[in-house]
Specification:
The chain contains eleven helices and no strands. By secondary structure, it is mainly alpha-helical. The protein has two domains: 100 residues, Endonuclease Iii, domain 2, CATH 1.10.1670; 102 residues, Endonuclease III, domain 1, CATH 1.10.340.30. It is elongated and about 55 Å long. It starts with 25 loop residues before the first helix and ends in a 30-residue tail after the last helix.
């Protein structure tokens, strides 16, 4: 049987097949990353951190609480939390059982309470109760990893220390072919290499909003996606996309 192949007849595909990103150079990937960031900026110009905070300290604690918990739930807990313990010094001395009771609804409350207490004691002992402004100092605090540090530096201080990689950012970045990594640290490294530094902070906020509304985990709305022309849809089966 003679099966025709359009690509062999001088008619190459104008877009890559679903689930199979075309090969591209590092320069081309960076150019595509810049266009993706620009398009997201147009689609979601007001996207911002959804955790409610009044200071870098509040954002640091709220971000620790947000692990495996929705920002909405964290925002329901933090008014009482910061009403009782408004700064690092008072929170560092909070009775563990009382802190656990206040944050219980965020899940993993014992581990989170331990991290928060350790972090606050570190802030008091090493930084006079103030939140440091470098990634290196932040990640030395108990309970603070790169993601938390990047959130605080980006949203509280406007410092682009790296790309925040949460569930949405990881999933969508893999679908876009900007990274293959399922590990957040490796995905951050890949994204930082392909995105303009000026986009590092806002990119995550915009991708998170895009992931909640369009590029959902199941049955993404590919036909309504503003990134469709840049996206090879890695791992997305055509039959599952909503139409």
């Amino acid at each position: 049987m003679n099966r025709s192949n359009p690509a062999r007849k001088g008619q190459p595909r104008t877009t890559p097949p679903v689930g199979r990103p075309r090969r591209e150079s590092a320069a081309d990937r960076s150019a595509r990353g810049a266009r993706i960031a620009e398009r997201l900026g147009t689609a979601y110009p007001a996207a911002a951190c959804s955790l409610v905070f009044r200071s870098p300290f509040e954002l640091l604690v709220a971000t620790i609480l947000s692990a495996q918990c929705t920002d909405k739930r964290v925002n329901m807990v933090t008014p009482e939390l910061f009403g009782r313990w408004p700064d690092a010094a008072t929170l560092a001395d909070a009775p563990p059982a009382e802190l656990e009771a206040v944050i219980r609804s965020t899940g993993f409350f014992r581990a989170k309470a331990k991290s928060i207490l350790g972090c606050c004691r570190g802030l008091v002992e090493r930084h006079g109760g103030e939140v440091p402004r470098t990634l290196e100092e932040l990640v030395r605090l108990p309970g603070v990893g790169r993601k938390t540090a990047n959130v605080v530096l980006g949203s509280a201080f406007g410092i682009p220390s790296g790309v925040v990689v949460d569930t949405h950012v990881g999933r969508i970045s893999r679908r876009l072919g900007l990274t293959k990594a399922s590990d957040a640290v490796r995905a951050e490294r890949d994204l930082s290499a392909v995105l303009p530094r000026a986009e590092w902070i806002t990119f995550s906020h915009r991708v998170i909003e895009h992931g909640r509304t369009v590029c959902t985990a199941r049955a993404p709305h590919c036909d309504a996606c503003v990134l469709a022309e840049f996206c090879p849809r890695v791992g997305v089966r055509a039959g599952r996309a909503r139409r």
